[in-house]
Amino acid sequence: MASFIRKDGMPMKDPYEILGIESTASEADIKKAYRSLALKLHPDKQSVTLTDAQREELDKRFHEVKDARSFLLDAEHAQAKKKYDANLESERLRHAEEQRREQTMSSRRKRMRDELKMREYLAKSPAGASSDGVSSTNENRFDVDRLRREGERLREEYSKREAEVDAERKQRMAVERATKKLEKEDKQVRLKWSRKKVVGGVHTRESLQSIMHDFGAVEEVEMLGSKGNAALITFRDESSCKPCVDAYKTSDTMRATFVGRRKVDDTRHGSQDVVDDGPTSRIGGVEKLDERKLRQAAERERLMRKMELEEEAEGEASAVYKQSELLSSKQPAREKLSSSSLFPPSFPYIPENKTLLPFELLEKYEKEIFGRIDLITTENE
User: Fold this and answer.
1) Fewer CB in 10 Å around end: N or C, the chain?
2) Are 2 and 77 a contacting pair, CB within 8 Å?
3) Degrees (nearest 5) of the Cα angle 21, 26, 31?
4) 198-230: string of b/e by CB count within 10 Å (b at 16+)?
5) What is the pLDDT of residues 14-30, one digit of tens each?
6) Is residue 133 over pLDDT 60?
7) d(Cα 202, Cα 194) in Å, to the nearest integer?
8) Nearest Cα residue to 195 out of 336, 345, 307
9) Where are the alpha helices (DSSP H) in 125-195?
10) How many Å apart are CA 167 and CA 146, to the nearest integer?
């Protein structure tokens, strides 16, 4: 057994080939093949007419069969067998790929491959020697430059073909993404509402889903913007979009508009359910219908703009109020004290002051105070 297993744990010969079975054989198949060969090759079963060389060869094969059976079934070789089976499977897949390439390879590429193999063989052979013992000449050598140029050309063609295939794949994926986006937009409606006119001031995903459920099954509700007054509704069926848009067409609380190409069509063609105002001529009727569509589109834009301006005005008023509160809280204490002070100041109450005005009283006492200061300063000097 020691001579059958290499140092790395792998067998010297293929154990499956020794037993005459496939690499996918089960444990029962391995045991069956071993018993059959053991009975055939056992020394006690050999014919007496065999020569010594024949007996030695049969004994060698008998020991190989035992070693092969031991490698495939013994627990001590389980890891090595698993690795060996993986190598066999990899080799089998490689041969299958080579056969596939062989079948799809053109005759020109086969010729180039054979020439390259021959060149490699001549490069590995001893210098100056050939198969028939005659020295190789320049006529037997291949044009290396020609092979190199041909290889470069094939590589360029392959790279170009791969780039074209990749570009086509990316373009196809882009078209698929755009198609899916358009199909999704056909089932979407954009909502915008006034927070001042909504009960509670806000809408949630649950409340919007409950409201939109009246028009059809809702797949997704996505809140838009930072103000909390817009959302994107995705219905399960695109037929639910038009009833929703029509329902909020004249509402001053919430507006609903189409998304994507349906929005363009709606802007271009206007509302489809227009009622004529009275009998008109064909030309006059068409002109009046177009005017009505334009007027309705302008009215929708005006209402949307009005709602946006109301939201902006509400936000600006809130910001101004907060700023005024902040400024009033930071007002210095001395400013509050000065604002609460009175003019003119209080002076001593004497009869002669009754006839004087406040500024005259101030001037009188300033002269007295500054005169005393001057007198004290003169005495000190």
Assistant:
1) C
2) no
3) 70
4) eeeeebeeeebbebbeebbebeebeeeeeeebb
5) 999 988 999 888 999 99
6) no
7) 9
8) 307
9) 144-185
10) 32
- The residues that bridge with 230 in the sheet, in sequence order, are 192, 224
| Sequence-ordered list of residues with C-beta below 8 angstroms from that of 221, at least 6 positions apart, any chain | 205, 208, 209, 212, 231, 232, 233, 234
**What is the distance between the alpha carbons of residues 125 and 136, in angstroms, rounded to a whole number?**
11
**The pair of three-digit structure tokens given for residue 280, joined into one six-digit string:** 């008109």
Residue at token pair 């902040």: 326
How confident is the model at residue 226, as a pLDDT? 78
167-184 pLDDT, tens digit per residue, is: 998 888 888 888 888 888
Pick the closest to residue 226 from 97, 315, 113 (CA basis). Answer: 315
Q: pLDDT tens digit string along 240-272?
A: 888 998 888 888 888 888 887 766 666 555 544
Q: Calculate Rg over the CA atoms of the chain.
A: 51
Distance of CA 378 to the CA centre of its chain: 93
- Angle between helix axes 144-185 and 107-124 (nearest 10 degrees) is 130
Percent over 70 (pLDDT), the chain: 72
**pLDDT exceeds 60 at position 358:** yes
- CA-to-CA distance for 151 and 142, rounded, in angstroms? 14
Q: Residue 381 pLDDT more than 70?
A: no
